[in-house]
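Notes from the 1:1 (GR / supervisor)

We went over the backlog. Supervisor wanted to see one worked example end to end before approving the batch request, so GR pasted a single chain during the call. The sequence is below; no edits were made to it. Supervisor asked that the structure be written out right there so they could see what the output format looks like.
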Amino acid sequence: MAADEYEIALSKQDLREVTAFAAACAEVVLEVFEAEQPDDSRPRDAVGAAWEFARGGERGKSLRDTAWAALKAAKGTDNAAAREAAWAAMSAAGAAYLHPLAKATQVKHILGAGAHAARAAELAAGHDPGVGAEHVQRAVRRATPVVVDVLTRFPAAPDGGGRVGELIRVLDADLRSRTLTE
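Structure output shown during the call:
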């Protein structure tokens, strides 16, 4: 097969839609992180940078820097729910860097923020998987037709990844089935 058969066409608008979806997913759990680390704005800054790109800004240094900073914030807390919330923020800023490669691992760029946010919420609720499932369903409703279209250009989410990987696969399956019923 030719090299271009492994590539997926992605426009800047596709990336903006995916990033807006990821930012909306992550934004709802920022308070989980901030309850533990009220003086640390790094995850909120990452979500803000994601929104800035989604609304027409450039994909550049600010996104990368805030994503790395949110990752450091995640590593700096011992609270599992806060850590997941910071990872959701990091994933939101990183969504702008979805690669046009037909690899299942790229699905994490699309759905990672939603899955980490769902995990943060269920941990904050005392490890309640029902709360995580509710967050996944909200993410499904939040996804625009463009996000679903971009997702379906990629292979299904890969195995592994623990509970977050499981949430990614549930979100992936639900969004893909949405295209069959609409």
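Supervisor's comment: Residues 17 and 147 are 6 Å apart (CA to CA).
Batch request approved.
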